[in-house]
Specification:
heterodimer; A: 220 residues; alpha/beta; Nucleotidyltransferase, domain 5; 5-stranded mixed sheet; two-stranded parallel sheet; 20% strand; B: 620 residues; alpha+beta; Jelly Rolls; CBS-domain; Beta Polymerase, domain 2; 4 domains; 4-stranded antiparallel sheet; 23 helices; 23 strands
Chain lengths: 220, 620
């Protein structure tokens, strides 16, 4: 995280923080997040659902899973609807963005954020946090970047990010409900386990080494 | 702690996966969700050690989700586990350190689950049941109403109040009281004891005019009434009823006074009615044809008992009791007329009351020595015995295919003939078949002229046995070895690996029953089933308590599997085989079987290296 973003968030509480940077990945907790949104415009679109699961001690702990819907202030775009199938009508009774920001802040506190193509989650969570005077600030691990590092990312027409589902299938890992925020968070968590374990073949893997791969190989 | 904002979010993928695998596939959706909720997923690279033999007892089990793992016994691969296979449960349930190591064969995702019995609301639906004693013990504690427990409750739990009457009361009066009190029998007090009258007596004897309503009830009573102490386990009481062919047992207190009565219908369920139907049909058979019709009921009975989840050892005991009654009935229908008393002795699994539904009937015979000057009766007796065995086969049962039959000179001798033979075996254990024959006699039980029959085994047991004899006996006993393991299609034996099938009877059951026979010979007590003998072995310090328990567990599992195979063959009218293809067994059965083999092999090797230490008062 650069000085500029720190300055920009002056006065906001940092979540999750940088304390765990030098620790082995098996000794820290990760919060693996996936979001579905009204569309993919990072400044305009809004979160409609969020899913998360904790990885602790190198294990994905199923009963830590978290899932919620969010009532957006703008309609769900047709393109997004085709992906996650959440209609505006279904979301009308859901809590607002504050509840989502609070839940994710609690889940992320003291943990490392993990997401697939994490730049999207980072942008949406950052905006959500700002409404609660919070600042997303800490190491980020992107499983798409780890896949590239391990030469596992297949080329796909029209996209530069390796598809989550295809990566899981290629590795023989189970695919949880695709394009559902919790399903994708669970699949992403399994990818994290597989990738970090494979990276260990070359030596100990720390949060820093995962974050550096993310910076080097991620699309930021 | 995080909580799901939408609590009804289901972890479908986990639920579907677990729901498709034994032992979880009988759980309902709620329990599958509970179990899914308890999962922690971990990824192991190829070669990583997941479980290390001898480590702390496991506090969770593992389910392979992707990839595969291999199981190692002292660095030797003995099994491979694939997607859906569960491991670690033996250590988890027993609280013992794991005996085997598990290593990732390829990169794999494995689910770690805490003791599922503590997670689900219906632990009895976890299908760990038929796989090994350790698991069974655990299941019993998780399921206090299980059949197995019911079998052990005191029979008095099912007792009914007594209708008491004096021998001089009128039949009509007693019948009236039985009816008013909604009972089906009464205990009749005589000056010197008591008897019993049942509704069947009224039907058979008053209904036919044999006795009149104003006659004293004493005329109808059966004396003495069959009794059992009121704390007798239900299973034993029931077995007693089947063996004796009665429908009522009088319960007695410490002073042997009647306190209640138990009826077979009180113990009723599919498990108790059928054997008595067969037994009654056998007892009332007046011809060979009728006996054959009764015997024809046996296979179906075995299937029903099995389906009613009656424990296999009890099914074996019930079938044995019925076979005994067939033989006795045969001897009544066509008595052997040879001028001297004879005693029929059953051998092998029937003697131990551990038959399988399609077991052969193995027999021996002893006859009184005829008075001096009479010619040798052997040929005549054996001819008559052969006739009885022919009749046996007409009822649908089979004599022993390997020649252990009452008409074979080796198994058919006079009292003095047996005496000479047994003395010879003990003198020279190396002589032809001496060890085979003497161990066969350790599995023997006279079913007619019992006092005469027991002279044969008593002779063998009372004669001083030399350390040389006992050493050779042990070597002979230990020569029957279980396989060391199997990997998919391959059975791993001492002679190496080979593709093929596992003879469960030869490789699994026989090593344990042989140890039971060895115990019988060494202790001089030939009574009982293999588990009972193994328990006695622990009392006599021939085996440690752990060894005894693990052998009993192995016996229970292997016998149960063989029974299951026979029942399936009977159900589908296919030939019975004692061979199994390891790959066809589900992985839990396979692994518990391997545990059983290991337990047997461990006891064998301990006895092999330390046999004299185990023989009290024995030194060479």
């Amino acid at each position: 995280m650069g000085i500029l973003s720190r300055l920009a968030g002056r006065g906001h509480a940092s979540v999750p923080g940088w304390e765990m940077l030098e620790r082995n990945w098996r000794d820290v907790e990760f919060c693996v997040v996936d979001l579905e949104a009204t569309g993919l415009h990072l400044q305009r679109d809004e979160i409609v659902s969020y899913g998360a699961v904790i990885v602790r001690g190198g294990r994905m702990v199923v009963n830590t899973r978290l899932y919620g819907l969010v009532r957006p202030s703008r309609p769900v775009s047709e393109a997004a609807l085709l992906v996650h199938a959440l209609t505006s009508a279904e979301l009308v009774d859901a809590p607002g963005l504050d509840a989502c920001a609070d839940a994710l802040a609690e889940a992320l506190r003291g943990r490392v954020l993990v997401a697939h193509a994490a730049w999207i989650e980072r942008a949406f969570i950052g905006r959500a946090f700002a409404t609660r005077r919070l600042r997303l600030d800490g190491p980020v691990v992107d499983t798409a970047a780890l896949a590239r590092e391990l030469h596992l990312a297949p080329r796909r027409a029209g996209s530069t990010e390796p598809a989550l589902e295809q990566l899981a299938l290629d590795l023989g890992l189970p695919v949880h409900t695709p394009h559902h925020a919790l399903g994708d968070a669970l699949t992403t968590a399994e990818l994290l386990l597989a990738f970090a374990t494979r990276l260990e073949a070359a030596g100990p893997v720390t949060v820093r080494s995962l974050a550096e791969i993310t910076q080097r190989r991620g699309l930021y | 702690m995080l909580r799901a904002a939408w609590p009804n979010v289901r972890v479908k993928e986990f639920v579907y996966f677990l729901g498709g695998q034994p032992p979880y596939d009988s759980l309902d959706l709620d329990d599958l969700e509970r179990l899914a909720d308890s999962i922690e997923a971990e990824y192991f690279p190829a070669g990583a050690q997941i479980v290390t033999a001898g480590q702390e007892p496991l506090r969770h089990l593992w389910v392979v989700r992707t990839g595969s793992v291999e199981v190692l016994d002292r660095e030797r691969v003995i099994d491979q586990l694939h997607v859906g296979d569960t491991f670690g449960q033996v250590s988890l349930f027993s609280g013992e350190p794991p005996a085997l190591s598990v290593r990732a064969l390829e990169d794999c995702l494995v689910y770690r689950v805490p003791d599922p019995r503590t997670v689900v609301s219906r632990p009895e639906r976890l299908r760990f049941t038929p796989y090994g004693s350790l698991v069974q013990k655990a299941r019993v504690s998780a399921s206090p109403t299980g059949l197995r427990d019911r079998a052990l409750v005191p029979v008095s739990t099912y007792g009914r109040p007594l209708v008491r009457c004096a021998a001089g009361d009128s039949i009509a009066d007693v019948a009236d009281r039985i009816g008013r009190e909604h009972q089906s029998c009464a205990v009749v007090t005589f000056p010197d004891g008591f008897g019993i009258v049942t509704d069947a007596d009224f039907r058979k004897r008053v209904g036919t005019g044999e006795a009149a309503p104003h006659d004293p009830i004493g005329r109808l009573a059966t004396r003495p009434a069959l009794t059992v102490p009121e704390d007798t386990p239900l299973a034993s009481a029931f077995l007693e009823m089947v063996e004796r062919g009665v429908h009522h047992l009088v319960l007695t207190d410490g002073a042997e006074l009647p306190t209640g009565v138990v009826r077979v219908v009180d113990l009723a369920s599919a498990e108790v009615r059928d054997p008595l139907v067969v037994r009654t049909a056998i007892d009332s058979a007046a011809t060979l044809e009728e006996l054959a019709q009764a015997v024809a009921l046996l296979p179906g009975t075995a299937v029903e008992l099995f389906d009613a989840a009656v424990p296999p050892v009890r099914i074996g005991a019930l079938l044995s009791a019925v076979l005994d009654s067939v033989l006795r009935r045969l001897l009544t229908l066509s008595p052997m007329d040879v001028g001297v008393r004879t005693s029929w002795i059953v051998l092998g699994s029937l003697a131990r009351r551990e038959v399988l539904p399609t077991s052969d009937v193995d027999t021996a015979l002893v006859w009184e020595d005829p008075p001096e000057g009479t010619g040798d009766l052997a040929a005549q007796v054996r001819r008559a015995a052969s006739g009885v065995l022919d009749d046996l086969e007409r009822t649908g049962l089979r004599r022993c295919a390997d020649g252990a039959n009452a008409d074979n000179a080796r198994f058919s001798r006079s009292v003095s003939g047996w005496r000479e033979a047994t003395a010879g075996w003990l003198r020279d254990a190396g002589q032809d078949s001496a060890l085979l024959l003497s161990t066969m006699l350790a599995d023997s039980r006279p079913i007619s002229s019992v006092a005469l029959g027991t002279t044969v085994t008593e002779r063998l047991m009372s004669t001083t046995r030399t350390p040389q004899f006992l050493r050779m006996l042990l070597e002979y006993t230990l020569s029957s070895r279980p396989p060391t393991g199997f990997v998919r299609d391959f059975v791993v034996e001492h002679s190496g690996e080979h593709r093929g099938q596992l003879n469960l009877k030869r490789g699994g059951l026989r090593p344990v029953t042989s140890l039971g026979r060895w115990v019988a010979v060494v202790t001089g007590d030939v009574r009982g089933t293999t588990p009972e003998r193994l328990r006695r072995a622990a009392d006599a310090k021939l085996l440690t308590a752990d060894e005894s328990e693990s052998l009993i567990g192995a016996h229970e599992q292997i016998y149960g599997l063989l029974l299951q195979m026979e029942v399936e063959a009977l159900r589908t009218s296919t030939p019975v085989s004692t061979y199994v293809a390891p790959a066809k067994l589900d992985s839990l059965t396979r692994r518990h079987l391997r545990e059983s083999f290991r337990a047997i092999a461990n006891v064998q090797s301990r006895l092999d290296s330390n046999w004299q230490g185990t023989l009290p008062g024995m030194s060479s």
